[in-house]
């Protein structure tokens, strides 16, 4: 099979090149470049279908290659000297990212026309951001993760400010950019410190490879630097996934950014942040039994994450109650959900048993998949109702639309109920998985706080439903026509929410399963 | 085809109403044809009813005949580690009885509603919600594990919420919906934690033993009985689980302290009140307790609390019911009071009697509600009994059927309520349960008997004010001016319904009542028959002398847990000590068997001559109490139907105000200072306006965190970063020092 | 030879100055320069470790970081120009429409 990539055989001694392992990333990035070229050389007419189509094809192709990697998998592999790894964490996250991006493309196809924005640029940025997310999940090295994160961030900075003439979009973009680079600096400094600290007394230089870091923790030359580095890495990822107190950017940016971009940002980068977060902390600073630096470091970050999870959930949910803007409310809700995911992350981190750890990881990935789908569903409805310029995003704008626009209201209600975690919806399954993983590790208090938070969150989710169905409209209002691409996206999210809520077994099995089971499921 | 039906009979029962709801929502909405919508809705429930009867009574394997439950595994819903929840249905004797009366009474109420809701703009919406409710309620009782039961639990809550707020244009409907929602949410929290705890204790949440999945209830049944001590409540054992579930039951079944939502829920259409807030949903709490009877049998402290709360609620609600003027409010408080009886029965270990009362109550309370609905319909949506009177000659069928309901709830012999209520009172008096200290059973019985008296009084008052006496609806307008100050008082006292009546009243001129159409009276007649003869399935041995077997008890007795008596509790403790000493593997298995024989002998002992004699005496006392109550009611109210009742009662002991002053307002105040935001936002009675106006004060902290300046954000992040780095560095330095 | 700790201290001081500058400065360009300072402080750490342990990878990372910083600069300046066109101000405190 290496006929097409003769490079590998020729240079094997010199470089650990295996382009097969990078296939999904390569496909997405190439699709991005192709979209840019098409954008430059075609007329504006019909361009969105062209670029949107290319993007979708690219994403589907990447998904196919991802599934192919999975089925032909023989075990965790590395390439490029450990820069790129292939393991279950990466593959399941990659699939989540591809789902998010595909739905975002569907969401934005008509929207760019409403807003009279350049479709090609938008789709290219979306694809580059996706490539960045995928690199964040597949990077086996801190530097690779930093690169992926920057690729993602820079693309999303631009996307957040995509409505160039709108001051709110400008402001969101500026805030995101300044705070994002600020936190990237922390992440980078953390990388540098870990690199230095993992040097060994015999003169062996430090490393940024996550697997090697884990092996060298106990022999680290400068433990305090190692600890400070870990703290800074935590800050960097904490910013990306919006845990309190690094969540402050989220409400403003989500509110100001164009709604489809907000949808993408709430789903994709957050999942990507968690992918790297888990990669670095679960595999880089893992659970160890023997007392020593590694054990200390592990207990330190677990303790911190427990506290952060509690603060994040509480801040997100209580602040969401006070909001009058739907986008802002959903932004706070996304903060709260980051808190729930942290509960699962804590469980995965604390697991001493490998099987339990893998189950907890699968629970987190499943939660993020579910969360992405329902958030995209909710923001899709917000996009449709807000129309161009994001004009109607106040809660009053939703008064009584339930009976004029029943399908939209239904889709929105399903998404909200799922975000709340009502049984039979995907959100409920996600919560059950994550919380039961935490219960398995004995975090009863944490789970009780999380459940109480869920109860609090009922207030603002259901308030929107109440507003839609029990309120009367003050002014005249015409139900918006739902364009086909958006209708497809909405239908997919609703079906997905119910499918994952009622028959979650298959997907969970896939996330947890060993490769042989996957092959069987796919009939190969 | 037959095979398919046989294998999927339970699915057919639960999914038929769901299909009906979908058809009405999708097609009925377009057609806007009441005939079509009504037919679809009633057919859907009718299918469920027919199949429920088949499933319950088919020869050999019928749920009420066979020993083993009918199990139907649809798919494995959740499997995480050791946690497994199936999407599986089960019908055993308990859920069989529930399914029968839910579908049966539900069908009658659906038929009634086609007449009652005639001409309403949201006809399709109403019937979709009603069918959806039926689906959820059947999931609740037919689900074979705690989690699926919780799905139904949430689902019926949602439907109840939608239906209470059905009249979109009425403010009090929205407020009531919200209140119901908040109260139930508090209860749900208890259920979730209770289910989690049960899983923690047993590693299972299934009700029934299945291959590779043990039953949580059986595992708990094999555990030692917990001691009767208050500390057990917080020990995280069986007692804690039982209490957490009971918190859920107080929400759903409207018991103290979470009962406040039910009276307000009467803002929904009357068929909804009959179906959801009288016959079915509100008894879900009783279902859960009886279903989990092994848990309660092992948690004497919890049983004691259940009994006390039940008895107190029964009395408390009955006194309030005495002074209400809104016909539906009287019935609402009566419902709370009757559910209190059921809880009392559960608490003293008389689980069978509790279910028996649930069933008879479903008959007569649905009848009373539908009867009142018929009256309200005839009076053009007038609900105030002070503006009724003398209706018996205008509405003879409604009157006659209401009479049977009235006699049934009062506990006059032959009528259904007599047998079940009498059974509960007798079981309360004679209970030997370990959970109930000897003196307490007497006290509980006394409370129960006083409640029975009050029940007879207020029901007589209701009947007298509505059907006898002078016809006050004609001069109602003339009185209106005088009534105004009254109305103002009530409105300020927080009674939303009164405000509504004053408002509604202005829209109509004087009315001439008329009998309701046959679609409404036929269900009334059927329910009247059931209320009259329905109790005969459970005639106690003492009254029949064995001539009529007690079918009900024979059916249910084998599947509910037997609450240990004082003597048994002592024995069991001894036996456990021995078991521990022996550490034999077969010992746990032997224990329930021994349990069983003990139980048999106890049952035989119950039929000893002196027991029978005293049970008969107590039945006689019950009848006398009921007759005295009716007598008091008749003599007081037939002459002065408008007698001013004590203000304290009329204003429901000011509980709403007390809650407002002690819970809602302090929390609001606390929140203003930035504290306890968490709770305030959950409990705040929560009109959106209150939130909107409160934002400036409540949101002070959030504002301080999000001023919109990017530099502030950077500063907040930096502070957070410094704390984190400091914490980690501290750890690191500590490590250096240690080395 | 200058000990490693001096380089590290220098880098930490520069990083802190940068972080403080982000909070103190109101001009968007100045804030951006402070962030660049933080990135370059990090580069010093990389280079110091790299040269101290005679390992070339640390220095390679510096190139990657510089590339990323350049890309960030391009995008950042673009964003700042866009906001300046609409507001005619570079004061970040003026841009506070989105809040609470």
From TrEMBL, chain A:
Residues 140-456 form the NADH:quinone oxidoreductase/Mrp antiporter transmembrane domain. It is a multi-pass membrane protein. It is found in: Cell membrane; Endomembrane system; Membrane. The chain crosses the membrane at residues 20-42, 49-71, 91-112, 119-137, 143-162, 174-201, 221-239, 274-294, 300-322, 329-348, 360-386, 407-430, 442-462, 482-502. GO terms for biological process: ATP synthesis coupled electron transport. It catalyses: a quinone + NADH + 5 H(+)(in) = a quinol + NAD(+) + 4 H(+)(out). It comes from the Bacteria. One of its GO terms (cellular component) is plasma membrane. InterPro entries: NADH-Q_OxRdtase_suN/2 (IPR010096), ND/Mrp_TM (IPR001750). GO terms for molecular function: NADH dehydrogenase (quinone) (non-electrogenic) activity; NADH dehydrogenase (ubiquinone) activity; quinone binding. Keywords: Cell inner membrane, Cell membrane, Membrane, NAD, Oxidoreductase, Quinone, Translocase, Transmembrane, Transmembrane helix, Transport, Ubiquinone. Its EC number is 7.1.1.-. Its main location: membrane. The keyword Lipoprotein does not apply. PANTHER family: NADH DEHYDROGENASE (PTHR22773). NCBIfam families: NDH_I_N (TIGR01770). NDH-1 is composed of 14 different subunits. Subunits NuoA, H, J, K, L, M, N constitute the membrane sector of the complex. NDH-1 shuttles electrons from NADH, via FMN and iron-sulfur (Fe-S) centers, to quinones in the respiratory chain. The immediate electron acceptor for the enzyme in this species is believed to be ubiquinone. Couples the redox reaction to proton translocation (for every two electrons transferred, four hydrogen ions are translocated across the cytoplasmic membrane), and thus conserves the redox energy in a proton gradient. Belongs to the complex I subunit 2 family. This is NADH-quinone oxidoreductase subunit N. The gene is nuoN.
From TrEMBL, chain B:
The chain crosses the membrane at residues 6-28, 35-57, 97-116, 123-142, 148-168, 189-208, 228-251, 272-290, 302-323, 330-356, 362-379, 399-419, 443-464, 524-543, 617-637, 713-737. Residues 77-127 form the NADH-Ubiquinone oxidoreductase (complex I) chain 5 N-terminal domain. One of its GO terms (cellular component) is endomembrane system. It is a multi-pass membrane protein. Keywords: Membrane, Oxidoreductase, Transmembrane, Transmembrane helix. GO terms for molecular function: NADH dehydrogenase (ubiquinone) activity; NADH dehydrogenase activity; quinone binding. GO terms for biological process: ATP synthesis coupled electron transport; electron transport coupled proton transport. It is an enzyme of class 1 (oxidoreductase). Residues 595-611 have a biased composition (Basic and acidic residues). Signal peptide: none annotated. InterPro entries: NADHpl_OxRdtase_5_subgr, ND/Mrp_TM, NU5C-like, Proton_antipo_N. Residues 144-435 form the NADH:quinone oxidoreductase/Mrp antiporter transmembrane domain. Its EC number is 1.6.5.3. Residues 492-515, 580-611 are annotated as: Disordered. It is found in: Endomembrane system; Membrane. Its main location: membrane. This is NADH dehydrogenase subunit L. It comes from Pyrinomonas methylaliphatogenes.
Automatic annotation (TrEMBL), chain C:
The chain crosses the membrane at residues 6-24, 31-53, 59-84. One of its GO terms (molecular function) is NADH dehydrogenase (quinone) (non-electrogenic) activity. Keywords: Cell membrane, Membrane, NAD, Oxidoreductase, Quinone, Translocase, Transmembrane, Transmembrane helix, Transport, Ubiquinone. Its EC number is 7.1.1.-. It is a multi-pass membrane protein. The keyword Mitochondrion does not apply. One of its GO terms (biological process) is ATP synthesis coupled electron transport. Pfam families: Oxidored_q2. It is found in: Cell membrane; Membrane. Gene3D superfamilies: 1.10.287.3510. It catalyses: a quinone + NADH + 5 H(+)(in) = a quinol + NAD(+) + 4 H(+)(out). Its main location: membrane. GO terms for cellular component: NADH dehydrogenase complex; plasma membrane. It comes from the Bacteria. HAMAP family: NDH1_NuoK. NDH-1 shuttles electrons from NADH, via FMN and iron-sulfur (Fe-S) centers, to quinones in the respiratory chain. The immediate electron acceptor for the enzyme in this species is believed to be ubiquinone. Couples the redox reaction to proton translocation (for every two electrons transferred, four hydrogen ions are translocated across the cytoplasmic membrane), and thus conserves the redox energy in a proton gradient. NDH-1 is composed of 14 different subunits. Subunits NuoA, H, J, K, L, M, N constitute the membrane sector of the complex. Belongs to the complex I subunit 4L family. This is NADH-quinone oxidoreductase subunit K. The lineage of its organism: Bacteria, Pseudomonadati, Acidobacteriota, Blastocatellia, Blastocatellales.
